[in-house]
Amino acid sequence: MIDVVFQLIIFFVVTLKLTTDANPDISLEDGKHGVTLTQENMPPSTLEIELDRRGRISIHNATLSPDMLTRIIKNRIVRHNSNEFPVHIKADRRSQHDQVKKVMDICTAAGIWKLSFVAVQEHKSQKKRD
Predict the structure, then answer these.
(1) What is the side-by-side order of every strand in the sheet holding 87-91?
(2) Residue 101: in which H helix or E strand, if any?
(3) What is the pTM assigned to this prediction?
(4) Among 60, 51, 57, which residue's Cα sits nearest to residue 21?
(5) pLDDT 10s digits, 13-36
(6) Is the pLDDT of residue 127 over 70?
(7) For the structural domain made of 2-129, what CATH number should be given?
(8) What are the sequence ranges of the domains in the chain?
(9) Tens digits of per-residue pLDDT, 91-116?
(10) Residue 83's closest CA among 67, 60, 107, 64?
């Protein structure tokens, strides 16, 4: 019985960790006419870079400096033996363009050319008004 309880505790701790990786400070821009991303149409090698309104760069809510981001991208290129993996930039809609440009410049300097921006199709507040 104790083994079952421990297994359940481990399961809930692992599942809780998976749901808290997203940065809650990022409010994405509207993208009503874009492609809808699902697990089926997103390659597993996709790298998601987050940028909040204060210019904080992160991956899975772990803060990175521009140098650290450069090293991560270069190591990923070596690991995949290719620079053809997609990079999704999740920038807060209130972030400054020069901060977004900095992330884009880091990616292009490393040879990444598959850059995309992530947006939401419809904000919850808009649903309530309609």
Answers:
(1) 62-64, 57-59, 47-51, 87-91, 115-117
(2) helix 97-109
(3) 0.69
(4) 60
(5) 666 544 446 666 776 766 666 666
(6) no
(7) 3.30.420.270
(8) 2-129
(9) 888 888 999 999 999 999 999 888 98
(10) 107
